Amino acid sequence: MVRKLMNNKLPRYFEEFNNNLWSVEDDRDNMKLYYRVKEILSTRISPFQQVNIIDTYDFGRCLVLDGVMQTTELDGYIYNEMISHIPAITHPNPSKALIIGGGDCGVANELIKYPELLEIDMVEIDEVVVEECVAKLTKISGNAPRDNRVKFHFTDGVKFVKDKKGLYDIAIVDSSDPIGPAEVLFSEEFYVDLKDSLKDEGVMVCQSQSPIFNKDILSRTHHILKRHFPIVKTYKAVVPSYPGGMWSFTLASLVYDPLNANLAKLALNTSYINSGVFQASFSLPNFMCDDLGIL
Predict the structure, then answer these.
(1) Is 26 a catalytic residue?
(2) How high does pLDDT run on average in the chain?
(3) Same CATH fold, 76-292 and 14-71?
């Protein structure tokens, strides 16, 4: 077991007790999540955050940023499929896609399943995240790093979209939690710039946090997008490694309603999403409808 990697001490966000190593996530100062670790595969301090790739007993290899679980081999495909395939088939004929964030390359790896997508711009502020995931999380990054349609841009996504007008058919905001470098990706100004980067029939989607523990973020995201898009739909999935399990996504469209999508276009080589899951994900429990004011 690799334990002492930094100055003969455990890296921050790790603890050892009872001869076991644990990754410790502090969620909102109200809850601690402990993941039993087989091995710390790498620890790198980027200009933005601490980047860890770890191997765990339950979730396999995982990406952890500043102590917060981002994706895992066990369930990462659920999140990646839900945030990518739904916009990809909501738009009837997308040719150019934008990903903001998504440093594990999981979203890009799902989008390349659609041959009609000719260009995929992936904008990730932290190059270290991509380097580590391409090298050590190959089950998630998949073939995306070797697909010529995927173009990597290691820069600030907020700045990137400001001078992009009417370029993209679909845009996906695969951000981490709204703290640190990802905080501005939840702002109204960013969403307006993102809308401007879309073509006249464009579709965007963002992860909008836990509907259990982050009701304020989900509600604010939904209402901001309602001010700027004629069609806004929130949908859900269960991602076991995320606090609360249930996770939300919010899709905003200038023309196309996801409930009218041609489900026959859905890629077949998926592990989670299918036509039934697609449709059911938009059926929200009453508490979410109440929180969003859509009952």
Answers:
(1) no
(2) 92
(3) no
